[in-house]
Amino acid sequence: MTRRIDRILATVVAAGAALVFGAASAQAANWDMPTPYPETNFHTKNIVQFAADVDKATNGAIKIKVHANGSLFKHPEIKNAVRGGQVPIGEILLSNLGNENPVFAVDSLPFLASNYDEARKLWAASKPATDKVLRQQGLMVLYAVAWPPQGIYAKKELKTVDDMRGIKFRTYNPATSQLAKLAGAVPTQVEVPDIPTAFTTGRVDAMITSPSTGVNSKAWDYVSEYHDTQAWLPNNVILVNLKAFQALDKKTQDAILAAAKAAEERGWKASMTETETMTKTLAEKGMKVHKPTAALMAGLKKIGDQMIDEWVKKAGADGAAILKAYRGK
């Protein structure tokens, strides 16, 4: 009931904001912002700072209230909530939209980009195509920040891909679902807030995700092994409703864009620190942090090559342009 009331209130606020935008962009507006992850997550902390920066830079004309951990809208609902004007701004994992358009999934292709320099280069190469598709839907990216490299959590050590066969594997986007299928595992969609329950009730036995999510969800309570595969670095993006943004005066737009640029730089640095800190925390909490065996990595990279080939065929001209810009050929 509380969540339903929150949604109604968010819709009312969004409608009020739209009236404000239409009447006079100089008037103050309160922006509700749904995010999928807990307040302790580095992405959420960065967003809270971004909101404070926007408030200061716009002299209070735009006040962003952050609703963390899927408390206002669940993760799969956030993009359409922003697009439909229920809220003017929100955070999503971009690759969640991979079934809508393959362009959105490029950052989750295994081993295409598996370190921060490669991930930033891939985002620069894919951003024009991403912007084009999102703008056609009435959306705009304000900024993007990568997660730490993805590793595999399991109840037993995985020495080869064959060890994944038949296990129930938590997935969070089309790419992880495809990886699970190609490895012979059983894909099961589970959002971050539901991870501990999914493991303790036996819905899933393993997952591939960041050290951050592992620590945030206290993975040591339900699994014992972490394989530091560094498979990819998926991006979270901050989306804004294009009409809401364009209704603002240029000074306010510029202030938001400047705050977004600062948040992107700050967020990538925080992600790099997060990788080291959270991987260390997993070990301190008693988890065995494994350097993957050569056999496991060979099997995963073979799956990655297959997924990249399939993605290129689906993505067409946009995909070819992204890879050309990324690889420089």
What does this structure look like?
- With 329 residues, the protein is of the alpha/beta class.
- Helices cover 50% and strands 16% of the residues.
- The chain has helices at 2-23, 42-57, 75-83, 116-136, 174-182, 195-200, 211-216, 242-246, 250-284, 294-327; strands at 29-34, 62-67, 89-93, 139-146, 151-154, 168-171, 186-189, 206-209, 225-227, 235-241, 288-290.
- The strands form 3 sheets. The chain has a 6-stranded mixed β-sheet, sandwiched between helices. Strands 3-10-4 form a 3-stranded antiparallel β-sheet. A two-stranded parallel ribbon has the order 1-2.
Would you kindly provide a brief summary of this structure?
With 329 residues, the protein is α/β, with parallel strands linked by helices.
Largest sheet: spatial strand order: 7-6-8-5-9-11
Share of helical residues? 40-55%
Helical stretch tally: 10
Question: What is the count of β-strands?
Answer: 11
Class per helix and strand makeup: alpha/beta
**Mean of pLDDT:** 93
Outline: globular
- Proportion of residues in extended strands: 15-25%
Give the helices and strands as they follow along the chain.
HEHEHEHEEEHEHEHEEHHEH
- Biggest sheet: strands, sense, closure? 6 strands, mixed
